[in-house]
Automatic annotation (TrEMBL):
A Pfam family: Ceramidase
Signal peptide (residue range): none
Any single Gene Ontology cellular-component annotation: membrane
UniProt: Ca(2+) binding residues: W17, E19, N21, E30
GO biological process: autophagy; ceramide metabolic process; defense response to other organism; response to salt stress
Annotated compartments: Membrane
Domain of life, source organism: Eukaryota
Cofactor(s) needed by this chain: Zn(2+)
Membrane topology: Multi-pass membrane protein
Keywords for the protein's UniProt record, in alphabetical order: Calcium, Hydrolase, Membrane, Metal-binding, Transmembrane, Transmembrane helix, Zinc
Protein name: Ceramidase
Native source organism of the sequence: Corchorus olitorius
Residues annotated for Zn(2+) binding in this entry: H78, H204, H208
Main location class: membrane
Length: 254
């Protein structure tokens, strides 16, 4: 939405959202859409520290780092509203889903070297094509298809997990995904009506916050499931009685 102070970054060349531009700073186009990525980056950092501290497989460290990269890319996009920065946000979104696909399906994949090779070239090819061509609805359809491909495996992990606390993580994952999607849709579909309100609920910023927690709950659930597969006696414990993380005991597998 055009409005506010003069632009440091020049004319808008990317998709805009339902937030007035350059209201609080000439350096930040969409202020709330920018700062709302901070919780997700911090949650990914917490997950990374836990994965490194307990020596989880490297795939989870890479996953948490990808969450952080995605959050930083989103901040740059919403701060500048430039096409290049938007691509720097959207491409890591696809890479992140390819990582989830690998973590979900690789344990039962018989030809283990083929999956990471295929996913690597798929991700690299997408990055090149996305840099050359501007996608609109095509990117969203592609992203939704990748999400749908992950759902059956997530459901299988859920039904085979007996731990109540781990199942609660999966439910929190679904709840945050639903709430975040409703915020995204309302911001996108009803922007004209929302613009007339005295107060803008900042639906896209709420999407960022919900998806930051969504990624953390998904990662923690997958870490629990993988630790079960490896016989590491995982437990979901809570800091201050409410913040969950996975604690493992590798000696039980020896």
């Amino acid at each position: 939405m055009e409005n506010g102070l003069s632009s440091f970054w020049g004319p808008v060349t990317s998709t805009e959202w339902c937030e007035k531009n350059y209201v609080y700073s000439s350096y930040i186009a969409e202020f709330f859409n920018t700062i709302s990525n901070v919780p997700g980056i911090l949650l990914a950092l917490i997950g990374l520290i836990n994965a490194l501290r307990q020596r989880f497989e490297k795939r989870f460290s890479v996953l948490h780092i990808s969450n952080m990269v995605l959050g930083i890319g989103s901040m740059l996009y919403h701060a500048t509203l430039q096409r290049m920065q938007q691509q720097g946000d959207e491409t890591p979104m696809v890479w992140e889903l390819l990582l989830y696909f690998y973590i979900l399906y690789s344990p039962d994949w018989h030809y283990r070297s083929t999956m990471p090779t295929f996913l690597f070239f798929y991700g690299a090819g997408f990055a090149v094509v996305h840099a050359l061509f501007r996608f609109g609805i095509g990117f969203k359809v592609h992203y939704v298809i990748l999400c749908l491909l992950c759902i059956p495996r997530m459901y299988k992990y859920y039904i085979y997990t007996k731990d109540i606390s781990a199942k609660r993580l999966a439910k929190l994952y679904l709840a945050t995904l639903f709430l975040g999607s409703m915020c995204w849709l309302s911001d996108r579909l009803f922007c004209k009506e929302i613009s007339l309100w005295y107060f803008n609920p900042q639906g896209h910023a709420l999407w960022h916050v919900f998806m930051g927690f969504n990624s953390y709950f998904a990662n923690t659930f997958l870490m629990f499931c993988r630790a079960q597969q490896r016989g590491w006696d995982p437990k979901v414990v809570h800091v201050l009685g409410f913040f969950p993380y996975v604690k493992i005991d590798k000696t039980k597998s020896q």
